[in-house]
Amino acid sequence: xxxxxxxxxxxxxPAPPGAGWxxxxxxxxxxxxxxxxxxxxxxxxxxPEHPLHTLFxxxxxxxxxxxxxxxxxxxxNASAPALTGPERAEILDLMAGLGPYGAEYGTPCTGDWCSxxxxxxxxxxxxxx
Length: 129
Description:
Layout: E1 2-3, E2 6-7, E3 22-23, E4 31-35, E5 38-44, E6 53-57, E7 60-65, H1 70-73, H2 85-94, H3 121-128
Antiparallel strand pairs: 1-2, 3-4, 4-5, 5-6, 6-7
């Protein structure tokens, strides 16, 4: 796991306390959990060119993950209710501009070896509808 441009030294991320991940209906931001009024959102990156996931809390970058932590696996439940339309809209508003890997640093990926360039807010919203 990395946090920003530098590694965090392997400090594990805690599981979202008291909440499970819910499907969002978005292939770019596939899971979200509401924890103490804050949205924890996983972005699915273009792996292996980038880390598998990036975690955001209320739109702020927390860290990159090459594997979902094992204690989170039980929280990702395919039978969990999907976000409602208004919740999904709230997530997509919160995550606006953060579709491409690196956007959280102000340098979105533009490499021709991955799909980051297509991850515009419009594409993400259309794909999630």
